[in-house]
Write a structure and sequence with these properties.
By secondary structure, this protein is an alpha+beta fold. It contains three helices and four strands; from the N terminus they run E-H-E-E-H-E-H.
Length: about 90
Amino acid sequence: MTRAIITVVGKDTVGIIAKVCTYLADNKINILDISQTIVQEFFNMMMIVDMTGTDKPFNVISEELSELGVEIGVQVKCQLEDIFNKMHRI
């Protein structure tokens, strides 16, 4: 299984979750876990996804998610789980 961590941060607006989840579904990326919070007017979401089903390379998915974030006014970052874990090891 190829797992990745997706984070979405920005000013809260209608449709952020729907647009990100629609992109993932259209690309056969399965959401394994999701957490989202809104603090005052700021939106924060973290997802763990399984990328095994997608035909697109990771770098394309990551770039397209970043572009989607620009379109909807938030910052979207996608990292492979292994790299995420190594970066956040204490």
